[in-house]
Amino acid sequence: MSKTESLTNVQIFFLMVQTQVGFGILTLPNVLQATSKGDGWMSVLLAGLVIQLFLVIIWLLLRRFPQLTYSEISTFLLGKMTGTFINIIIFVYFILAAAFVLLQFSTIIKEHLLLDTPYWVLGLVMMLTCTYLAISDIRIIARFFVLISLLIVAKFGFSFFSFSLPMDLHHILPLGSSGMKNIILGGKDCLLSVLGFEIILFLYPLASKKGTTFLKVVTWANVFVTGLTSYFVMLCILIFSESALDKIKYPVIYFLRPLHFQMIDRLDMLFVSIWIVPLAVSIVIFIHLGGKSLTFYKGKPQHLVIMNSALVFVLFTIAKKDPASQKLYSLTLEYLSYGVVFTIPGLLLLLSFLFKKHGKEVSS
């Protein structure tokens, strides 16, 4: 593969970062109040360590099959029938993940920006925009992800305004007061909030630098996302009391609401407007990789992406006004993630060793 046809280290880094930094951070401080409370930032660090462990497992699997994607490895190791069944599960995971992000996007925009706009209009506009990019080649998508990486700097910049608000260090003291059990339970909630690192299962064959170099790139991406997430969680814990965090659904947005300046007002709306982009790119990569999961499809990839987008929109319209359906989506996505992201790669790695199957290993 020529260098122009491969993904650079920078592109892989921001593909992983932008996919992970989506909706989850906005609600995570609120979610952690049910378990680790003031030790929520410790739960985030624990989740980062667990993710790093699975990144190593995934890397070991991909290193044994450097020219194959996740779905191709499953077919190769499990046979056509079983592998196809697993790939359909992977496909369902990506489609459901895209639909869930679309649901959260429409809810945030409806509650903070476009109060009178119907849900279906918000969903349709977002899906049309995402489909336009998702039908492109993964390299074009990667270039766009690198381009919008400047928005991460803007997010940090907005958060610095919150330093003018009163903060109470006692909200995080004493360290570990919630107990190790609750910190671990909080880490489980964090794992679901920073999903997205699984996209590397489809990126390794396209990487210009494989082997240990690839592992270093995804490790630094994980360190960055873990640091960014723990930063926002700790910021919210310091600003809000436990009772307030328990009631505020989007604390990362809410702490900007009371800030007013002579030339800038409603920083929370500006912050939400910027955060729309990470939500959009998460949908883009999910519907794009959803098409890559169906190895038996022999038609044009663009047609499959369009079909994926239509399926996501249908799932969105079914659940947009029904809290029970949204809860069902959330639970289904949670259980699917345990299998698709954590269990299946580990089993495939184990089978590859047991059956002594591998491709040509590539060193960095």
Please tell me about this protein's structure.
The structure is a single chain. The chain has 364 residues and is mainly α. The protein has a single domain, classed as Amino acid/polyamine transporter I (Up-down Bundle), CATH 1.20.1740.10. The chain is 70% helix and 0% strand. The chain is built from 15 helices and no strands. It is globular and about 60 Å long. The relative contact order is 0.22.
Q: Could you outline the blueprint of secondary structure elements for this entry?
A:
Blueprint lengths: L8 H12 L3 H9 L7 H25 L5 H9 L1 H33 L6 H16 L3 H10 L2 H11 L19 H14 L17 H29 L2 H6 L3 H4 L12 H27 L7 H19 L3 H32 L10
Q: Ends: how far apart?
A: 15 Å
Which percent bin holds the helix content? over 70%
CATH superfamily: Amino acid/polyamine transporter I
Q: Just name the CATH architecture.
A: Up-down Bundle
The CATH class is identified as Mainly Alpha
Question: In one word, what is the shape?
Answer: globular
Rounded mean pLDDT score: 86
Write the H/E string, N to C: HHHHHHHHHHHHHHH
- As a percent range, the share of strand residues is under 5%
Structural class based on helices, strands and sheet pairing: mainly alpha
As residue ranges, the low-confidence spans are none
- CATH fold annotation: Amino acid/polyamine transporter I
Question: Number of DSSP strands?
Answer: 0
